[in-house]
Design goal:
It is a single chain. About 40% of the residues lie in helices and about 15% in strands. By secondary structure, the protein is of the alpha/beta class. It folds into 2 domains: about 60-140, Ribosomal protein L30/S12 (60s Ribosomal Protein L30, Chain: A), CATH 3.30.1330; about 150-305, 3-Layer(aba) Sandwich (Alpha/beta knot), CATH 3.40.1280. The strands form 2 sheets. Strands 5-8-7-6-11-9-12-10 form an 8-stranded parallel β-sheet. Strands 1-4-2-3 form a 4-stranded mixed β-sheet. Strand 6, helix 6 (about 170-180) and strand 7 form a beta-alpha-beta unit. The chain is elongated, with a radius of gyration of 28 Å. The relative contact order is 0.12.
């Protein structure tokens, strides 16, 4: 009987210890848990930052170019006379200097020619400053770019321009510019508020096309007036009742194609000023809109196809 009581007493002590440890562990877990109902991230400088640092930076104004493709595009845009942006300073990963001696030699020649400095630094510093991870150990601080109003811009005779309206993401904007450049577009028209404030992100997303394309901005009425005075047909890309498939519509140069963002689309004010409205046929029933980058790419290449061999 005494042995049984001793065993029961020992069991009771062990149970109390276990319950106490469990309670302490639960309390500690609750203290380390983020508040319910609030989205938190672990990417910022401190645990619980409301927005990841890199995610927030892509929307912030920045003229830092990342990687040799973006830097070469700045040089190319300036040489073509479509861009007055200048390189002010380059940061180069000193650990990559030997492996990238040709790239470094090219930059040193440009630095001597244009008068900017090249500073060698660590990979950690470049990673901290960069938004993306494909910089290759190279960042360039640049000046801002002048974007003229459409009324101050010389519009090409018989050309192909695109007005991008309401695009809400700098990556989508950059992807659109990449395809439009490849499709032979002569220039891009923007709203006054546009994503060129985030020039570094846009340049990287566009593979440098944003720096090599002529850009202008304007209000809807002055954009329409400027192009109509130059004999342009204004074509809206939108799914409306009067829209015709782009594949069943003859679209000849000179033309201004208007593409809106997938959320807001083309403004009603500008839509009234368009001469035609075209839409993309889908291969199946699908109620969602394509991204502005996808829609502008497909339609721009169809316009290119129709006019191929007919340009000057």
């Amino acid at each position: 009987m005494k042995k049984l009581l001793s065993l029961l007493a020992l069991f009771a002590v062990c149970l109390l210890i276990f319950l106490e440890q469990t309670a302490n562990a639960q309390k500690e877990s609750e203290q380390n848990t983020f508040p319910k109902g609030k989205i938190t991230y672990l990417i910022g400088n401190e645990k619980g930052t409301d927005m990841p640092t890199k995610e927030a930076e892509k929307f912030a104004p920045s003229s830092i170019m990342e990687g040799i493709t973006s830097v070469r595009a700045v040089f190319a845009g300036a040489e073509a006379g479509v861009n007055d942006r200048k390189i002010e300073k380059i940061l180069f990963d000193k650990a990559k200097a030997r492996a990238k001696f040709r790239e470094l030699g090219f930059l040193r020649a440009k630095a001597e020619e244009q008068g900017f400095a090249i500073e060698f630094t660590t990979a950690e510093e470049i990673d901290a400053l960069a938004i993306g991870a494909s910089h290759g150990g190279l960042l360039a601080y640049t000046s801002d770019r002048t974007i003229k109003n459409i009324t101050e811009t010389e519009i090409k005779t018989g050309g192909f321009y695109v007005f991008l309206q309401g695009i809400e993401d700098p990556y989508n904007f950059g992807y659109a510019l990449r395809s439009l450049y490849a499709a032979g577009v002569d220039g891009i028209v923007l709203e006054k508020r546009n994503w060129m404030s985030a020039a570094g992100v846009v340049c990287r997303a566009s593979a440098g096309a944003s720096e090599m394309l002529p850009l202008s901005w304007g209000e809807p009425e002055e954009i329409a007036q400027a192009f109509k005075q130059n004999g342009y047909t204004i074509v809206a890309a939108d799914k409306t009742e009067d829209a015709v498939s782009v594949y069943d519509t003859e679209i000849r140069f000179p033309v201004l194609l208007v593409v809106g963002g997938e959320k807001r689309g083309i403004s009603a004010a500008f839509h009234k000023l368009c001469d035609k409205t075209v839409m993309l046929d889908y291969g199946r029933e699908f109620r969602a809109a394509l991204s502005a980058a996808s829609a502008s790419s497909i339609i721009a290449f169809e316009i290119f196809r129709q006019n191929r061999g007919k340009t000057e």
